[in-house]
Amino acid sequence: MKKIYMLAFLVLIIFWGCKEDKNTDYILSKDHHSYANFNDVRVNHLSLDLTVDFNQQILKGKVDLTLDHFTDATVLILDTRKLVINKVLADGKETSFSLGEEHTIFGQPLSITISKSTQVVSIYYATSPDADALQWLTPEQTLGKKHPFLFSQSQAILARTWIPCQDGPGVKFTYDATIKTDPHLMALMSATNGTQKQSDGIYKFTMKQPISSYLLALTVGDLSFASTGRNSGVYAEPAMLEKSVWELNTMQSMIDSAEQLYGPYAWERYDVVVLPPSFPFGGMENPRLTFATPTIIAGDRSLVALIAHELAHSWSGNLVTNETWNDFWLNEGFTVYFEQRIMEKIFGKPYEEMLTKLGMGELKATLQELEEEGKLADTHLYLDLDGRDPDDGLTDVAYEKGRFFLQKVESVVGRNRFDVFLKKYFEEFRFKTMNTERFVTYLKTHLLTSKEAADIHIQAWVYGPGLPDNALIPYSQELDRVEEAIAGFNNNQLAASEMNTTGYTTHHWLYFLRGLKNLDSTKMADLDEVYHFTETGNSEVACDWYKHCIEQNYTPGFPAMREFLIRVGRRKFLTPLYTRLAKEPVHKAWAKEVYSVAKKGYHSVSYNTIDQILN
User: Fold this and answer.
1) Cα(74)–Cα(497) distance, rounded to whole angstroms?
2) Is pLDDT of 77 > 90?
3) What backbone torsions phi and psi does residue 126 show, to the nearest 5 degrees?
4) Does the structure show a pLDDT above 50 at 549?
5) pTM of the predicted structure, to 2 decimals
6) How would you class 260 by CB atoms within 10 Å of its CB: exposed for 0-12, middle for 13-18, buried for 19 or more?
7) Can you tell me the mean pLDDT for 314-326?
8) Cβ–Cβ < 8 Å for 226, 240
9) Is there a catalytic annotation at residue 399?
10) Which among 175, 262, 399, 531 is annotated as catalytic?
11) 147 CB-near residues (< 8 Å, 6+ apart)
């Protein structure tokens, strides 16, 4: 009988142990950028009903939040910033709420009284005219010049400026929305989208796959649609549509190639909306609807790697999401690696090799800059962003060091084994989150032998500074021939007209411009006369040329650079140019004058950065 009792006791311990383990599966890592108590009560569905008011430049209406309870908490804490909260209901009955102390970056916690059985919390609210996520454009700031335009940018923690929510990447939820706007305009979201304007200006959306708050997206404007394939298409202002469709005609091939590599596309459609120039990023991977800068419409399809990058996020980032912003490299490092594989599959190995070699150059420049600024910790893949704006982690370290780490893994285990591993990884963790520690454990457990793990030097790559000494050295035969032109021009052995630049693409020119040394005004004029860099319509080339214009005080380039800084709002281009201009008093004064005109056309993501540079 004693043995029976002992056996029963052991079974009970095992049962409760398993039950306890199961009950802790919901726990997410601490998020230093969110006030939300998501390990007590968590949003699983969000339902929006908003009116777009272009006159006041606000969104107003309500959001219903459906909850999952993990503890007996009697308060729901949400993230907000610059929101006007008018009324809150818990299961249809008005309930008390309070806003906490305001933080410049993180906003205010919204604490709402609930019961342990509350199912739905409804919040009636309005955004502020200066909500950081929302860019309101006048008709004059659009291509068509007739109608206003609105777009959002929620990454990293700006969703809280237009929706009260649990604004951390670890919290995933489905959503639906009703958006009311001017009937002359079309509304689109990171959800199901129509292709025609609605005569009543009312648009309804559904996102049935769970996403994080940074992937909530809305744009409203004079937009038209054209298909680019079976489940892909482009939205743009009417005057931009034909150019955009031509430029992005490989979108369907990219989707098909990506599926062959890493499994089925989980989001049904993949569309792109080409936004006005003030969009602060190259692209934003909002599910189903990538937001893209018009600066990729170069007229030669040379910059479509950006679309491959945003598409790749449909697996890395959107499907398997970094649990906190400290783990951001899990999002971007995978995506750059994946982008490289898509481009290789569609355009061939020489094209991919050029992208990889340019990426290494950009990474080394970023590492040097961070080291000179005393930010050695920011050269790690896993970051410590406690108390800081998570945008501080948006550097080439996450993107390129992350990519080269994964390339190192591939080189050790072989491409076939690595592809099998990645396909399994995306399938096993689809619609879930991942943090750095768990990924390293998963990598060692499911792919690497102990010898392979030692050969890769995982600790140095993930938790160490700079670029480990076992990093691969990129090779590009295409760029090797550019080296000859660079050396000849730098050493005064070749004039600009004597260089063989036949067949140069954007990537050749970028490599050439980045390799130039010993410049002076005469050599700048020689290059400009032959290759017309000052007049180029290619934003990537223009940015690298204007860097030289600043450093050499090449005044013929300044009028065009002024127009560029006013016209283009992409932070990737603005930051290096304003940074160089700020180094010399005369140039800084000129930059401030330009910025006084240009700032009204920049998104907050851009102007907050430029404010710091020029102040």
Assistant:
1) 75
2) yes
3) -145, 150
4) yes
5) 0.91
6) exposed
7) 97
8) no
9) yes
10) 399
11) 139, 182, 184, 185, 221, 222
By three-state DSSP, how is residue 154 classified?
coil
Q: For strand 289-292 and strand 270-274, is the pairing parallel, antiparallel, or unpaired?
A: parallel
CA distance 193 to 227: 13
Sign of CA dihedral 269, 307, 259, 208: negative
| The two structure tokens encoding residue 171 | 């919290």
The 10 Å CB-count burial string (b at 16+, else e) for 202-215 is ebebebebbbbbbb
> What is the pLDDT confidence band of residue 395, given thresholds at 50, 70 and 90?
very high
CATH for 35-128+155-208, among 3.30.70.1450, 2.60.40.1730, 2.60.120.10, 3.40.920.10? Answer: 2.60.40.1730
Q: What 3-state DSSP class applies to 55? A: coil
The pLDDT of 371-380, averaged and rounded, is 96
**596: which 2 tokens?**
């006084």
Contact at 8 Å (CB) between 76 and 38? Answer: no
Name the residue among 321, 351, 474 with its Cα closest to residue 403.
474
Q: What CATH code would you report for 508-614?
A: 1.25.40.320
The token pair at 209 is 């796959």
- The DSSP 8-state label assigned to residue 401 in this structure reads I
The answer to whether domain 321-463 has CATH 3.40.50.300 is: no
Residue 505 burial class via C-beta count within 10 angstroms: exposed 0-12, middle 13-18, buried 19 and up: middle
CA distance 61 to 237: 27
Q: What percent of the chain has pLDDT over 70?
A: 96
Q: What is the pLDDT of residue 301?
A: 86
Helix (H) or strand (E) holding 41: strand 41-53
CA distance 169 to 171: 6
**Cβ contacts of 68 within 8 Å, gap of 6 or more:** 26, 41, 42, 43, 44
Write out 557-610 in H/E/C secondary structure.
HHHHHHHHHHHCCCHHHHHHHHHHHCCCHHHHHHHHHHHHHHHHHCCHHHHHHH
Q: Which residue's structure tokens are 């260089």?
A: 499
| Helical packing angle, 349-372 and 506-515, nearest 10° | 30
Give the pLDDT score at 23: 57
Closest by Cα among 250, 241, 324, 322 to 285: 322
Ranges for all domains in the chain classified under CATH 1.10.390.10: 321-463
**How far apart (Å, rounded) are the C-alpha atoms in residues 540 and 538?**
6
Higher pLDDT, residue 283 or 3 = 283
Residue of 247, 285, 310, 344 with catalytic role = 310
Q: What is the pLDDT of residue 10?
A: 45
Phi/psi at 382 (5° precision): -80, 125
Provide mean pLDDT across the span 143-172.
97
- Measured distance CA(362)–CA(453) in Å, rounded: 27
Backbone angles phi, psi at 588, to 5 degrees: -65, -40
Q: Residues 6 or more apart from 104 whose CB is under 8 A from it? A: none
Which residues share a beta bridge with 271? 233, 289
CA distance 92 to 314: 36
> What DSSP designation does 316 have?
B
Q: Residue 172 and residue 157: Cα distance in Å, rounded?
A: 14
Q: 500 in helix, strand or coil?
A: coil
Is 59 strand, coil or helix? Answer: strand
Contact predicate 510/533, CB 8 Å? no
Is 310 among the residues known to form the active site? yes
